[in-house]
Amino acid sequence: MKSPASLKRAAEWALPYWTRGQAGRETPQDLFRVLYFGWLVAFTLKLLGSAWDVSWHFKWLRDDLAPPHLLNSAGTAIAVALTVIHGYTGYGVDKAALRLIQWGTGIFLVAVPLDLINHRVNGLDITSWSPSHIMLYLGTFFMIAGVLRGWFMGAPPGRERTVVLGAFFAFFLENVHFPEQHQEYGILSIGAWDNHATYAEPILLQFAASQMERPVDRAMMTAFSLPVPDFLYPAYAVVVGLSVLVVARLLIGRFGAATLVAGAYVGVRTLLWPLLTFTGFPPSAVPFFLVVAGLVVDLAFLVRMPYVRAVLGTVGVTAAAYGALAAQSVIMGGVYGAIKGQKGLLGAPPLAPSSAVWAGLGLLALWLAAEWLAARRRGAQPIEARVIATATP
């Protein structure tokens, strides 16, 4: 807890900046850093709440005031406050970044009551792929995209700029990959059922069975845990998830950027795994294949010709992602065959090999689009950061 004196000093520092202004106004460096470190705090709270939320929903019945929802809401409250500050003062953002942040926050806030209504009308609706949930991801997508642009355009060159940019991309990857966690938790829940170590509480299983109008059996567990086609998990991961790593590598501009962004996200998932499981919550498969694919993205950028590396990179990334997923699936089968219940970190949702062709084509299209946009801006002078070293507005 901060002392009243420290809070007073903070208020005295911030109050002079609270003036009306247009987006793109010159921003003092100390204020710029405070705003964007505030975004780091907001996204961290949202990430922790979201990670806990999926595990929670595979154990308990849904509750609007569940602790994961409150933790996520704390991050959302900070994000809304920062959106208001950017919009009113014009500090720390250009017009494009501000519009992205405002639209993202608006979509997210509209999606929250729609999601509550959806749960009231449709009952459990555990799937991460429901329309109201997709609106939440979409709002966060635009929100982080705006923050990324604001930091990319305004932060002064240096190590801090690169590290924070990578952190924002890791949050971006977490957001787009989030719906995939349904299958990552679901496959291990089915394995636990087969080994008589059910994670979900009886009240949740009975509620789901009643909603499906069938008994609590394996067919019900499968419909509950894996409600989407098998091709969706690998295809979505390759097309959407790995496109984020391609853009991260383009904007950060350093070898290893894609691998580090993927590694940061997977590292957080790996650290959270024991924290959740040791406190009695269900485990999830960890998407280690993203690190392998991120490394292939970085290797592809060693090729100087953009469109050639897009083609070669797509082939390599798709093969690496599907190969790593297949290996994880085999290991998962071995783990389940050796022990009762799931106690290992490895595992992967069902793999549909035929989807690799369409996943590769989708990734190629987005990779080529990213290269084309980057080529249009290549040769232009970088935009000067609108940051000054003074501590007064």
Brief account:
This protein is mainly alpha-helical and 393 residues long. 70% of the residues lie in helices and 1% in strands.
Question: How would you describe what is shown here?
Answer:
With 393 residues, the chain is mainly α. It folds into 2 domains: 20-156; 157-379, no CATH class. It has 14 helices and 2 strands. It has a two-stranded parallel ribbon with strand order 1-2. Helix 5 (131-154) packs antiparallel against helix 6 (159-177). The longest helix is centred in the C-terminal third of the chain and has 33 residues, at 306-338. The model is unreliable at 338-344 and 380-393 (pLDDT under 50). This is DUF2029 domain-containing protein. Keywords: Membrane, Transmembrane, Transmembrane helix. It comes from Nonomuraea angiospora. The chain crosses the membrane at residues 31-49, 69-89, 96-114, 134-151, 163-179, 231-252, 259-279, 285-303, 310-336, 356-374.
